[in-house]
Design a protein that fits this description.
Among the domains are: 152 residues, no CATH class; 94 residues, Tetratricopeptide repeat domain (Serine Threonine Protein Phosphatase 5, Tetratricopeptide repeat), CATH 1.25.40. The chain has 27 helices and 13 strands. Helix 17 runs antiparallel to helix 18. It starts with a helix and ends with a helix.
Length: 640
């Protein structure tokens, strides 16, 4: 485990430099005192005697949730929380009932451990009996500034500690988002119609035009620190925030008469507060124009013609760390594995599970090379014990090998996992083989479908996923007649689920709509695509890859129906979305420009259409090469 241990030793060295907030107080007394009064500083504490749990999460300004570690294997989030606004107990956020929810202490995602990591400062460690031990409860100085040992040793020398104020807005989103949820992508898997997601402020701010365009229009680009000083309690009242808005928008002309509602402020309209339950509400950080009255989850329109793409692959300055990064929990998983092996011996099933947990955690947190050793260790132990979990272990390692570019080795392991007794593992492995071995994809997907139906029943969401993949494979073979009933069945499953995967639903509708269009049933295809358009708008907001694709599909249908103005309008909308998501010089944007150019030429706007086609051609030649199929296609259209 040489690679793994080297990485963990580095983390351990960084951890050793944490000194605690009390070391900061002598030199920074004022900031220490005001920060100590903030909600951040009181985010975690040991529960009082007689309380409902061992730990109290939350400062108490909104709510307090109790958590208990009930064994070496489990952490419980209690089903009732205390709410400050009602001074009563109510369902804990995310709970459907008052029952407690039990999490595995060392699950591969780190569900419970991440809670401790984000509500405390410094490294989380393990005490006797696998007890989770946060270093310093609450979010204090080093949670943002990083380990302070070198700074103290240097007597406060410049450059001896990191300063978040030096970061740009997207870098700050990376730092704050480690706990408040990072903006993974403008086209991520967020359901923007779910109000509970509003608590993820960086994700919402990341989408706002004010955030994305301000670096090019303002000397002080909008960031978390524009409105929030981490050294003080959060400001209350709208006047403070309205003044911040006025620094970039000193003179605003409103189309609506806001004079008749003097109690309204900038933020009450453009950053509305949204109730996530009867006990909680959050401010929507997706700054925009919201209909009054109307939904408050995503802006209904925007006045900015062009949004700048907002990068998410953020590389922080050299030496700058994210102290609350989930990756810092890796030593906890390593310690758990070592303790299991010491107590139970090297070949005990629990050692295999601990090794698997460590490997999967590393795989999900940026250490794929280090993950391979513990995952292979888990397989070796399972094989020695004849443990039925060996199939899941093989599937896990196969997924890692695929991610690391070792496709042949991954295929061999997926084959082995698909032949085991666990039908769910077999179904997933067969579907993976369908993705990796395209010449035999149809056979694999049909086997995966049979296994999933037997394991989960004929109406499970996973069945719909496999049906869609099988239908796409059949369409590659030009077998649309066989694909259509599969897509209709997949759509029917999704529509009947209490909690469907809406992205899957839109994808199925788009695939089916495109298929139906190909059979020239244009009215039926249009009806289906308009339903997909509404669903995409409702669930994913005004800018998403799903919405862009649906606009394009619907435009194609209208073009076939000779509604050229309608088609052009939808192509323009898709173009606006793709520029927002991918930038002007991307193949996705070039496709929209080419579509708009062709429909413009057909509508008699020859010069405008040819200009658009030349623009698309230039992008294709730059991004995909002059000999790409896309570039050749555009040249053919220019020659007509």
């Amino acid at each position: 485990m040489r690679i793994l241990m080297a990485g963990l030793l580095f983390l351990a060295a960084a951890h050793g430099q944490f000194v605690g907030s009390s070391a900061c107080q002598p030199c920074h007394a004022g900031k220490f005192e005001t920060q100590a009064k903030s909600a951040h500083a009181r985010a975690l504490k040991a529960a009082e005697p007689g309380a409902r749990g061992q730990w109290a999460f939350g400062a108490g300004q909104k709510a307090t949730t109790w958590v208990s570690q009930t064994s070496d294997q489990s952490v419980v989030e209690h089903g009732l929380s205390y709410y400050a606004n009602t001074k009563l107990l109510g369902l804990t956020p995310g709970h459907d009932t008052s029952a407690d929810i039990t999490y595995r202490t060392f699950d591969p995602v780190g569900t419970a451990l991440r809670c401790f990591r984000c509500h405390s400062t410094g490294p989380v460690s393990l005490g006797p009996g696998y007890k989770v031990q946060p270093s310093e409860p609450g979010i204090r100085c080093e949670a943002c500034h990083g380990p302070g040992g070198a700074h103290v040793k240097a007597g406060g020398g410049l450059g001896s500690i990191q300063n978040p104020s030096k970061l740009n807005p997207t870098e700050l989103n990376e730092l704050c988002g480690a706990c408040h949820r990072q903006a993974s992508s403008l086209d991520d898997d967020t359901d923007w119609s779910n109000p509970w997601n509003l608590r993820h402020q960086p994700s919402y701010l990341h989408r706002a035009a004010c955030f994305r365009n301000s670096p090019g229009t303002s000397k002080q680009p909008l960031s978390c620190l524009t409105c929030h000083d981490a050294h003080e309690p959060i400001k209350k009242g709208s006047a403070f925030y309205d003044a911040k808005c006025a620094t970039c928008h000193p003179k605003v002309t409103h189309k609506t008469n806001i004079a008749v509602t003097p109690q309204k402020s900038c933020i009450s309209c453009h950053m509305p507060s949204v109730s996530t339950s009867k006990n909680l509400s959050f401010v929507n950080h997706w700054i925009g124009i919201y209909e009054q009255p109307g939904p408050k989850l995503a802006p209904t329109r925007r006045t900015v013609k062009a949004l700048q793409p907002s990068p998410v692959a953020v590389v922080l300055p050299a030496g700058f760390t994210v102290p609350a990064s989930p990756a810092t929990l890796a030593p906890v998983y390593q310690k758990a594995l070592e303790e299991r092996e010491r107590e139970l011996g090297p070949n005990h099933p629990q050692v295999a599970r601990a090794a698997s947990d460590l490997g999967l955690f590393l795989m999900q947190n940026g250490s794929p090379e280090a993950a391979e050793t513990p995952l292979r260790k888990a397989i070796g132990i399972d094989e020695k014990n004849g443990d039925p979990q060996v199939d899941a272990s093989r599937e896990n390692l196969a997924g890692l090998l695929e991610a690391n570019g070792k496709q042949d080795a991954a295929i061999a392991l997926f084959h082995a996992a698909s032949e085991g007794k666990d039908l769910k593992v077999a179904a997933r492995s067969l579907a993976s083989l369908g993705r990796l071995d395209r010449p035999n994809a149809e056979l694999y997907y049909r086997k995966a479908l049979a296994a999933e139906e037997k394991a989960s029943g004929p109406t499970d969401r996973r069945v719909a996923v496999i049906l869609h993949e099988l239908a796409l494979t059949l369409r590659e073979k030009q077998d649309d007649p066989s694909a259509e009933p599969l897509l209709r069945r997949a759509l029917s499953i999704q529509e009947k689920l209490a909690k469907p995967d809406f992205r899957l639903t839109v994808a199925i509708m788009n695939t089916l709509g495109n298929l139906i269009e190909g059979t020239r049933r244009f009215d039926e295809a249009e009806k289906l695509e308009r339903a997909a358009l509404k669903l995409a708008e409702d669930k994913f907001g005004p800018e998403s890859a799903e919405l862009s694709m649906t606009c394009t599909n619907l435009a194609d249908i209208l073009w076939n129906k000779r509604d050229l103005p309608g088609a052009g309008q939808l192509y323009r909308r898709a173009l606006t979305i793709d520029i927002s998501l991918h930038g002007l010089e991307s193949s996705e944007t070039a496709a929209d420009i080419a579509n708009l150019g062709m429909v413009s030429k057909e509508a008699g706007q020859t010069a405008a259409g040819e200009n658009l086609l030349r623009q698309a051609l230039a992008i294709y030649e730059k991004t995909l090469g002059p000999d790409s199929a896309q570039a050749k296609f555009v040249r053919q259209n220019l020659a007509r």
